[in-house]
Every structure is written in structure tokens, then in C-alpha cells.
Design goal:
This protein is an all-alpha fold. 94% of the residues lie in helices and 0% in strands. The protein has one domain. It is rod-shaped, with a radius of gyration of 47 Å.
Length: 125
Amino acid sequence: MDEKTLEEIQFHTETIESDENSPLHLIREKEMELSGQALAVKKQAEEIVAQARRKAVDIVREAEAEGERLAAEREVVVLAEVEEEVARITRDTEKEIADLEEVISNRMDDAVDFVVGTVVENEGR
């Protein structure tokens, strides 16, 4: 309790001891009762605020954990998608290389024939 409250209680106690039946005594008695109720309500409000703060901390902690879990799940999905895309690009590239090697192989004979023909023609001149 704070000092002011203690002084009020002491004052009220002294008043009660001096004159128990006066209207002032009854008013002071009621003031003490209300003061006690106000302190009880204040304590209750402080406890409610403390509980709310604890609950808020728990909610934030749970939200962070949920966020981390969701991020980890998404990371797995994205990594699988990236690996699939890399595999597709690799397959496509290997197919393009094979196609180009086939075209080169087919044209190689034509290129050799052309070079030989050109050399033979130039020798005959």
C-alpha cells in the first residue's frame, strides 16, 4: 500500500475510536470501506493486465513458432520445385545437345563432300 492509503486508514481508525455513532464517523467508515474496495479492484485490474500480458507473450511465441513451421514447410516445397525445374532444364539441354550432335553428324558428310569437291575442282584448274 502507498503512504497516503496508510495515513487514511490510520486517520479513520482514530476517528472510529473517538466517536462511533456520529454521522462523520459513519461517513468515514463508509469511506474506509470504499477505499478498501477500490484497492481490491485496483489489485484485480493489475492481475487482469498481468494475465493479458502473459497471454500476449504466449500468443506471440506461438505465432513465431507457427511462422517458422510454415516457412520450413514452404522451403521444402520450393526446393522440390527448384530441383524439378533443374532436372527438366538438364533433360531439355541434353536432348538439344543430342539433336545438335545428330545434325552435325549428318552435315559432316555433306561438309566433307563439299570440301573434297572444292579441292578437286581447284586442282583441276
